[in-house]
Protein 1
Amino acid sequence: MKFKKTLALDSRGDILLDEQKKLAYLEGPRGVEQELKTLLKTIRGEDPLDENHGLDVFEIAGSPPAVLRREIRSALLRDDRVASIGDISIERDDERPRHFDVSVEVQLVDGTPLELDAEV
């Protein structure tokens, strides 16, 4: 399966430029990985072009980890490039109680395994 290319972003979500100061792009599984990490950091409804993109933070706020796992699984499976979700581990950030560090095992439809690490 051929995945579309996407703009490359830095760790803060800013667009990267290549050595010639042109827009940098990611393709294939690396591009999908970046887009899925961005999905996990987006509040559902925040994107005016896709109201279903992101996590429903109002559903998960103050909820037990099982609810967060369910919402992560649901959000990732809405992407047609994702075949399955494996283990989802969640760690609470004691210094920032409303933030979680999550690690998710994902398998893409082309069989590529990904390990997504994101702060939610």
Protein 2
Amino acid sequence: MKFFKAVLVVLLLLVSALALIGVFVPEVDDEFETEINRPVIQVYAAMMNLQKAPEWVVGLDSVERTTGFLAMPGSTFKLHYSGAETNVVYNMEVIEMVPLKSVKFKLYNDMFEFDVTVKFEADMLSTKMNTYVQIKGKGLVERSLLPLMKSSIMQVGKDNFKALKELQEG
């Protein structure tokens, strides 16, 4: 009986902690850098060509343009992802773009929102990409789980940019 009570207390503390996190931590953010040994014009063009994104974005099956022109500000897309157990569609909106310098976009669905800014820095024949990601949960449960999911979500982003690097340098 004492064991059951101890497990129940631990479970209640865990649920309470997650609820507090969901209330007081509405977002998490991180940043990382990727260096690609190609000129900035080539790297920027590859990243802006969303029709070829499934070649380097993990789990991305297809990209469907819904409004706008190419990957210009105001353009929107539907990104169709598939995984081992689920299929997910994210909406993407290009917020801001400074050619060869930066791009800011938003990925979102009914559970999460990702605000992403990528800054390109030309360094002779290589390009440094500084990526900042802010992740927001739309509901209490999603916000509660963000700190637990942050490292795995960021690892997927890093893996995507590593795949872009390999595609560009290969």
Protein 3
Amino acid sequence: MSVPRLSRLLRPTRSPIDAAVDELMSRLAGVTGTASEAELVIAAVEVCGAPIEVEEVAQPQGRYGMVARIAQGHVITLDPHLPGDLRLHTLLHEIGHVLLGHTENAGAGAPDRLTALVTGQPVTNEVNCAVPEFRQWAQRENDAEQFASTVARRLRRGLTGRHLSRLDEAFG
């Protein structure tokens, strides 16, 4: 039986969430003060390389927003009645879905039924009705929440550099 190398044990593990947060925050490094919605969206576009539009659309009760993959990129819809912090968190949550690749399967071929309905595309027999299984869906929601919470915490503390952010998260 071989003994694992010390360097392998000490190597930091970075999740896809960590990588996405670090990448977004590095794009915001030049922003002074609190980042605006527009600055967050521009940074997310730079990271994902595809356009992201933000639209205000009244949401059903209990839903604050959603993201849909379209041919040209992504559309994030936010409820226009959300108060400041909740609106920011919802925007970051939906950006998290984009940067974590949760919308990529939806862009292949025909749009899924929900995307077609929300974006006004015709719902035909070609609409992809595939829905991720519950565990996968729940994990995606959890990952997007973790992304949004981490970015919001870093923005509140003014920590855009990866090393300072990591130290702050580790030691509070």
Protein 4
Amino acid sequence: MLKVLGAVCVLLATVSGFAQLRNALQQRVTELRDWLAAVRLLQSEMNYGLLPLPRLCELAAGQIDGAVGQFWQSLAAVLQQGEPLALPEIWQQLLTAQSQNWHLLPEDLQALTELGQGLGSSGLSNQQRLLALTEQRLQRLAAEAEERRGRLARLLGGLGWCSGLLLVCLWL
């Protein structure tokens, strides 16, 4: 009886381990879509609202959930405190600190770093161009992430079951 219970535990552990990998793939897609929504919000507000950047960050934090919303909330708080650092430096510090909890790849973070370097540092037309290019880049990255998730999700599910069954067979 204990062997059967142990076998079930091993099988469930491997299946749940691979399910966490599948979840990480989905989280990357979600985070990229959240960043895309934030960039679109910035675009529309820069074109029509002309709000100051701390207010834009608050607005983004209010409309975007999860880790990306937390980033915007932290950025708004730092900007309202009137930190002596320039926006690109603040952006990079927050991005480095908070990206530890994200599921983004280095190329995703590179796009966000470049956004932070150009945001608030030039005229309105240059910022609009930067946001448009960032939107296109994030759309491409999100599409690639979605395709990768679709391709690997089923594979990871099967690997979870197969590796669990293999371990159980080797153990018994």
